[in-house]
Amino acid sequence: MQSDDISLKLLLNRKIQENKLYQAAAKIQARTRCFLMRKRFLTTLADRHHKAKLLQKYLRFYFERVIVPTRQLIRERKVAGKIQKMLRGYLARRLVTQMRREIEMMGHFEYFDKVKQHMELEAILKIHFYLGRYARKNRLKRMEPVQKPHDRCKKKKHNAPKHST
To answer: What is the distance between the alpha carbons of residues 91 and 93, in angstroms, rounded to a whole number?
Structure first.
């Protein structure tokens, strides 16, 4: 029994030693894997950090060279549109004011035009009246020889209509 106990103890000690060796190897492997993974992680992290910096650099470049000028161009176009809109409004208001003044002035000139037309009409009528008078006088002078006053009376009596009673 003693030998069984000794062999059992030896066997048990050996198993314990193997188990300790196995655990120690597992710890070493775990630490090595941890070190390798940490190293890989740090290189990956550094690589990602580098790539993130490059991406930020390119995005800043794109933003500064493309987006900002585009936004500025859009902003300038909006401002230009507002300026044009205000200018068109100003010109339209000025045109309306000018047209109102012209209409008002036309109203004043209409009165003077009416007075002018009235004066022209009166002048035409006077000219027509005096020309007619002049023409009648000249016609009478050309057509009839001058008669003595007593001959005129006879002629008038002669031409008088006869009344029958």
So the answer is: 5
